[in-house]
Amino acid sequence: MGLFSRSWTALRAAVAGIPDEDFDRPSGCRGWLVRDVVCHLVIGAQDVLITLVTPAEGPATVDAVTYWHLVEPPTGEDELDALIPRLAAAYGEPRLLKFHFDDVGSAAGRAAELADPTALVGTQGQVLTVGDYLSAYVLEWTLHHLDLVARLPSAPKPPAETLAAARTLLEKIAGTPFPASMSDEGALLVGTGRRTPTDDEREALGEFAARLPLVLG
């Protein structure tokens, strides 16, 4: 629960600090601008709010690791992915998008803090504890924080502890650890295809390199 709050608070602060002119810069998410990532985060915050008020009967069917599954790389044909840039552009001024994100984001943060971590909730046809659901979202928030600041060198990066937690979760999803020589940020970026591995990283990854990128669905 604490890691969720830290990752979400850091991400919201990063969005709040982005100058308006940087909203039209490319992000680290291929094909999306910074404003598109923020719009996606609005939808993510709404999903958190919806899930936390959707109680379910047990037993749990997934945990923080098995909540995620590996899928094929996106083709650009997904309707929601295509919708995001249009929604983001419809806000017009960055301040309106910032306001909506702060409004929904602060509500999602409060709901997470008030939720019982042992309670069961339902989402995407699965049942899991609130604690596992919020732990799974640490990976989501951390990756999108990296997307957000990928080309904004002065913007703050995710906290070290959430980078480490996100790496650990990604390793569990993959069933293989990343080389100790790779930083947490590097493992996340290379592991999810957000950055091409260097020659040294590819050599250290060995056979694991052939399984990358790990695309989460």
UniProtKB/TrEMBL annotation:
Xref: Pfam families: MDMPI_N
Keywords: Isomerase
Signal peptide: none
Record has tRNA processing as a keyword: no
Keyword S-adenosyl-L-methionine on entry: no
Annotated Mycothiol-dependent maleylpyruvate isomerase metal-binding domain residues: 5-148
GO molecular function: isomerase activity
InterPro entries linked: DinB/YfiT-like, MDMPI_metal-binding
Entry protein name: Maleylpyruvate isomerase N-terminal domain-containing protein
Source species: Amycolatopsis dongchuanensis
